[in-house]
Amino acid sequence: MEHITLSFPASRTLQGKALAGVVGSGDMEVLFTAAAGDALSIDITTSVDNSTRRWNALFERLNLTNGLPAGKLVIHDFGATPGVARIRIEQVFEEVSHA
Q: How far apart are CA 47 and CA 21, in angstroms?
């Protein structure tokens, strides 16, 4: 297991909390809590060692396409593909934006 902590500048503000995925599902769980501020802090626990570059690249792409909201993102990854990771992350951002 590897623990990764990242931080990215936030370009938008949301309100609320959201959960996507389930830890026991075999891929991943993402929890987002919106907060005031100018950064998105990301806490990742993953079963895939040496994956910091992959996570950085994913968040850089998300930042370019939609911008990132301010708050705290907690990810429990158990070997999900990058596509599944992106879907789960976008799900929590979308759920909170429509709350």
A: 16
Helix intervals (H) in 23-73: 52-66
Contact 73, 89 (CB under 8 A): yes
Query: What value does the mean pLDDT take over residues 49-69?
Result: 94
List pLDDT tens digits, range 8-35.
999 999 999 999 988 766 689 999 999 9
Strand partners, 98: none
pTM score, two decimals? 0.92
Nearest to 42 by CA among 21, 79, 69: 69
Name residues whose C-beta falls within 8 Å of residue 48's C-beta, 6 or more positions apart in sequence: 2, 54, 77, 79
